[in-house]
Structures are given as C-alpha cells and as structure tokens.
Write a structure and sequence with these properties.
It is a single chain. With 720 residues, the chain is mainly beta. It is built from three helices and 40 strands.
Length: 720
C-alpha cells in the first residue's frame, strides 16, 4: 500500500511540475492593515491566494503530507507577510511546542519560509517559526554552506487550539538583501515539520534527484520590495562587570577600569543599496553570555575549529572564502570594517580589522616565520581580505580572493603574510559538480626567514536521492601558510573518496537505511623526503527504526606517522538516538580503539562515551543534561580518565523573558555555576543580568571558590 501511495504521489507531482510552481503575492493598498498576532483574522488575508499543494519529503519523498497546510502571502511598503493555517492529523490532538529559546524549536510543530530574493538559486534566507511564534533563522548557499548563527529582525506570532495552529510572520524589507533591479522573480519555498512524527512536507515538492534544493524553488511573483529609512543601523552595547578573584587564602574585588569592568562598543551598518552593506565596529562586543560547554581536550594533536557566532563577522559571511579567512583567528579587534553583498552576478566581500591580541600560526608542526607565540606576544595585527565570485550558468562559478596580515611591534613592521586563491565550480548535471582551487602564500619576518608555498585541491561529487559519492585530491608545499585561515599542516599530498547508498523500504520497520564507505590517504614531506603520513579506510551503516529511533555504527582501520614513529590500529563507534516522546530527547554515542598519546608519541587505547538528554515540561521549562567520559591508556597501566558534565535549566517566562541556570565542570577538577536573567524582545536588542561562581580543587583538596563574576550587558538595534 505504501508503494502505491508513493507511486501515485510521484505521478501527480510529475504532472504538476510540467509548469513552474509559483506563488502570487498580493500588495496591500496601505500600511498597518496586518497585526502580527497569529490570529489571521484581518480581511486582507482573504484577498491572498491560498497555497495548499504540499508534498511529503521526510522521512520519505513523495508520501502525502500528514495533515493539510495553507499559506498566503501579502506585502506592503515595509514588510512581506506570511500567514500559515496548519491542521493536525487528529482533530483532538494538541500542538507540540514550547516557549523555547530562540533557535531551539527543531522538536516542535513548526513552519518554514525560504526566500531567494535574487532568484538565481545561489543563496536563500530561511525562517522557521513554531506554533508559539518562537523564531529560528539561517542562511544556505548552493555549495552547501549553512549558517545558523545569522540572526534577522522580524516579527512572528502563533495561536493554537485543538487540532489546529496558525502562524503569522512579518519580515521587514530592511532585513533582506535584494537586487535593485532584476528580471528574475524571487524564489520561495514553504515547509512544515510535524512535531509528533518529525516528518516534513514542502511546497514546492523538492526531489533530491532533481538537484540542489535551491534550484527547485517556486517563483514568488508580484512582490515590490521597498527601501525604508536611510539604510542606517546603530548597535550600541555596554558590558559592566565586577567580581572577586582568589588571592592566596582570600577573595578580593577587582579594581574598576576599562575594559575589565566597563566595556562599551558600537556597531554601525549602512545599507549602501538593497544588495550591498557596509559594516563598521569600534571595540566590537564579543562578550559571551554563556560559557561554551566543556569538552575533553587532554589528547589533541591540532587546535579545535570553532564556529563563528560574533555578530560583526556574520553579515555576508557566505561571501567570504573559508579557507583564506577563519574569523576566529581575529581574536580581539579594536575596530573592524566590512563590505559585503552582491551586484547582479558578482558577489563582493571585503574586510579589514586591527587585532590587539593576534593568534599564532595554526601550523604548529612546522616553524612559521613571524607567527610563533613569541612573535605575536605584545604585537598587534592588521588583517585584510578582499574577494569576489562571479556566478556562471548551470550552478557554476569563478572566484578570486586576496588576504594579508601584518604584525606590528612598537608601531613597526615585524612580520607579514600574503595569500591569494583562485577557485571555480562547474556543474556537470543536475546532481553532479566538480570543484578546483589553487592558492599561493608568502610569509616573512623582518630580518629573518622568508618562505613561500602553494596549495591546490580538486573535488568531484554526486548527490542523489539513493546514493552518491565524493572524491578528490589535494597538495600543499612545506612553505604554504594560511595565517588568516585554519590550516594545521603543510608539506602534504593526498586523496580521498567517499561513497554512500540509501534505501527506503516500502515494507518493514525501517523508514530508511544508509550505508557509507570511505578511504583517505596522504603523504608528507619530512626532512626533504616524502614518506607515508596517514591512511584510513572505513564504513558505516545507519537506520531510522520505529519510535523515532536512529541507530548507526561505524568502524575504520588506520595508520599514521607521528613523532618519527609509525602507528596503526582500528576504531569502532556507535550512535543511538530516540525522540519518540514529546518531552524527552536521548542520544548516546561512543567509540573505542587504538590511539596515539600525543604528549609522548606512544601507542595507547581510548574509550569514549557521551550521553545527552533533553527534558521538556509545562511548555516553558527545558532541562538539558550531558556527560562525557574518556579513558586513555593501555591494559596493565594506570588510565588517564577525564569526565565532564553539564546541566542546563531554562525557564521561558514569556517569549521575551527567560531565566536559565547552568552547572558544569570536570570531575576532580572544577565546578562552574551560573545564572542568567534575559530580556530579549527581538534580534539585536537584549538585556542580560548574569552571575557566575567557579570552584576548583586547589592542591588536591576540596572544592574552593576561585572566582565570582557579576555582569550586566545591554545592546539595542536602532534602524534609521
């Protein structure tokens, strides 16, 4: 029966796709006709065309949706409006949803809006909203870049009753970039996630065998976006801190001063045109209101790659080349300037910043002139980047990027780095592409060594519904560096391949079954000769089982050269997750196998286990618990055992007000307790009052207070 439903649905979809799916937006004669309250009771909504042709896409393409969805689109001089009317499968059922933190709605009944204002299938804004009006937003590009850190200012509200919920959304034209003049209609897509089953439906029907999602958007016809205001945004911010630090046997208050106890900042954005923005920041506010979760880092060979979440670096981030610019390498800028946007088929990205505490080179296994820890100590860095990408037909593109970093000591040049990169993507067919890039670098220190190098990569991939592959090769010479990027090793040449297959059984307990196999091999230049460096070969399998249970397992064999020694071994791992209960998410994963102890280049064995659980109750409360343990050592020896834990309780008093408590630490080492009261009425505007208390085991004794922190942070977004 299931096979027959899929076949009939696909036949209907194929027939309907003979003409391009489209949505007609209706303009309002005057402003203020829509009140964003989630009720959809204004007469204007009855004038808009209803969109109802949704099709199931998860967990299986082509199944009819679980319940009907209706969407309408309106606009006026300041906003584009979306109204969703969503029925539930059971008329007596209640919505799944919570007054959650912004972005934390993936388990809820929710709707989604995808907008491609340029209509070129290269980039889209995504807005998700749950039945309570809680927001989530992100940016996606044709080459697979997703940024959930991007935050947009828009309005949303939800209302619900037995068997139904409604969502009303107003997105300001000011929150979007769009072409001033364009012959292409906007692209649009609507999605709906069903909270009970986590199934998903879409209009238009998106099929993996037809290519990337962005190439299958419907046309949004009739929109007439308007510029509002003078295009200027101000984001002033102030952080006030105080607290106590341990000094011997007593705690002492910190002395007042800038920036330790009072730290103001200002961000300015000028929308030069609807598609181009200039950002500037003076002493940008990079303070965190919540510490990153603890992780075990006792046996790391290379630094960890950290995702960017600082507001100044997020605008237009998708236009910057990630190989040449890793913005977390800009640690503490005194000021920053950035130009980003798109003019017709040309994307532009420019950045300049003065970093007061620059990071040393990430290439730690080889000397890098001018960027050692000693060189950056007491130095400042001028960081610059300029790049452009030209869109070509058939998902193809050509890009060029230049970057520079200059270390200054006592206002004099101390060291420098320059890099350049040329890249291109060629679409072979709807689901296959090839990518290539070549880069060069030059690094030097005043009165010292100067090195240059080159790097290159070529990659081909195919991504279809029931399987795909990826294969490529790379090289970088011993002198190649990316001092503004994230490159941990040089002097290497290698290749890799990955193939996957997916089954969607028409009968049986599994929604889908996946299989994957891969290999990775490289060689490295050591003392003027090339020798084996690393090789891996492995495979994995996964399945979606009844009761929303995801199960996967993997194994691989490996060989690596480190510290002048050859090591080889095997590793095995698993992952089990269950989300069947509305109030509980559980995930357990772990792995074990042969390992290298990098501190002394010795052979070892490792066992890792991670347990994560999320509890929701009363629609306003969520408790997240996590525990991680790692044991490193060989049989018959004392094991190095590290354990970290975290408990996070959030109470959503209203959508704007929330209170959260966190306790986290490492067993036998430390304990951090914190509390935060937050008022966050909209993206870019917030007030936070926080308290933190750190305990540590001093000289192996009991836990003792080592620091107390109290802070008040306020930021506001002003649009002119």
């Amino acid at each position: 029966m299931r096979s027959l439903l899929i076949l009939l649905s696909l036949l209907v979809a194929t027939s309907a796709s003979a003409q391009t799916p489209h949505v007609n937006a209706v303009g309002l004669p005057e402003k203020g006709l829509i009140t964003v309250d989630g009720v959809l009771d204004e007469h204007a909504w009855s004038r808009a065309e209803p969109i109802t042709d949704f099709m199931g896409i998860e967990p299986t393409e082509g199944l009819p949706p679980e319940a009907p969805t209706t969407v309408r689109v309106l606009f006026d001089d300041k906003f584009i409006y979306f109204g969703f009317d969503c029925e539930l499968a059971d008329p007596e059922d209640s919505v799944r949803g919570y007054v959650a933190a912004r972005e934390d709605i993936n388990r809820d009944d929710q709707v989604g809006i995808y907008l491609d204002p340029f209509g070129d299938a290269r980039r889209a804004y995504i807005f998700y909203i749950n039945a309570f009006g809680v927001q989530q937003d992100m940016i996606v590009t044709i080459d697979g870049f997703w940024s959930g850190a991007w935050d947009a200012l828009f309005r949303s509200a939800g209302s619900f009753e037995k068997g139904r919920y409604r969502v009303e959304v107003a997105i300001p034209w000011r929150s979007l970039k769009f072409p001033k003049v364009s012959d292409s209609p906007w692209g649009v897509r609507f999605t709906r996630r069903y909270g009970a089953s986590l199934a998903k439906s879409s209009f238009p029907f998106v099929q993996k065998n037809k290519g990337p999602m962005l190439t299958q958007l419907a046309e949004l016809r009739g929109v007439e976006p308007k510029n509002s205001g003078i295009g200027l945004e101000l984001r002033p911010s102030l952080v006030l801190r105080t607290g106590l630090d341990r000094d011997g046997d007593s705690l002492a208050w910190r002395k007042p001063g800038f920036p330790d106890t009072a730290d103001p900042s200002l961000g300015v954005k000028w929308q030069i045109s609807p598609s181009m923005a200039l950002d500037a920041a003076i002493n940008p506010d990079f303070s965190q209101i919540e510490a990153d979760p603890n992780f075990i880092d006792n046996n790391l060979r290379f630094p960890l790659f950290l995702s960017e979440r600082r507001p100044f670096f997020l605008e237009g981030r998708e236009h910057f080349n990630g190989h040449l610019l890793y913005t977390r390498s800009i640690v503490n800028p005194l000021y920053g300037l950035k130009l980003s946007g798109k003019v017709k088929k040309v994307a532009v990205a420019v950045l300049h910043a003065l970093d007061e505490t620059p990071a040393p080179s990430f290439s730690r296994e080889r000397a890098t002139p001018g960027f050692s820890a000693e060189d950056v100590d007491g130095a400042m860095a001028l960081v610059s980047y300029a790049g452009s990408r030209l869109d070509l037909p058939n998902r193809s593109s050509l890009g060029l990027a230049l970057t520079n970093k200059e270390l200054l000591k006592s206002n004099e040049h101390h060291a420098g780095y320059r890099g350049a990169l040329l890249e291109g993507t060629l679409g072979l067919d709807d689901v296959s592409s090839v990518f290539g890039a070549v880069a060069v670098s030059d690094t030097s220190r005043t009165g010292g060594e100067r090195i240059g190098g080159a790097s290159g990569v070529v990659e081909v991939w195919r991504d279809a519904r029931f399987g795909g592959f990826e294969a490529g090769g790379f090289f970088n010479t011993p002198g190649y560096r990316t001092e503004n990027g994230f490159n941990t090793r040089s002097g290497r040449i290698g290749m890799w391949a990955d193939a996957n297959v997916r089954f969607e059984p028409s009968v049986g307990p599994a929604d889908w079954v996946t299989g994957n196999t891969w290999f990775d091999i490289s060689r490295q230049e050591v003392d003027g000769s090339i020798e084996a460096d690393q090789a891996e070969i492995g495979g994995s399998m996964g399945a979606r089982l009844p009761a929303l249970t995801d199960l996967s397992g993997w194994g691989e064999g490996w060989t690596t050269r480190f510290g002048g020694k050859d090591f080889r071994g095997a590793r095995y791992g698993f992952n089990v997750g269950n989300r069947a209960l509305d109030w509980l998410d559980v995930n357990v994963n772990g792995w074990m196998g042969d390992a290298i102890r990098y501190s002394d280049a010795s052979r070892s064995f490792v066992r890792n286990l991670n347990v994560n659980a999320g509890f929701r109750a009363f629609r306003r409360l969520k408790l997240d618990l996590s525990y991680q343990v790692s044991a490193l050592g060989k049989a018959g020896e004392a094991m190095d055992i590290d354990q970290v834990y975290r408990a996070r309780l959030r109470i959503g008093i209203t959508r704007a007000f929330s209170l959260r408590f966190i306790g986290q630490g490492a067993i036998d080492e430390r304990l951090d307790l914190s509390a935060l009261l937050a008022f966050n009425p909209s993206a870019g505007t917030a007030i936070f009052l926080g308290y933190g208390h750190r305990f540590e085991h001093v000289d192996g004794g009991p836990l003792k207070t080592t620091a107390i922190d109290i802070f008040l942070k306020g930021t506001v977004l002003i649009r002119l």
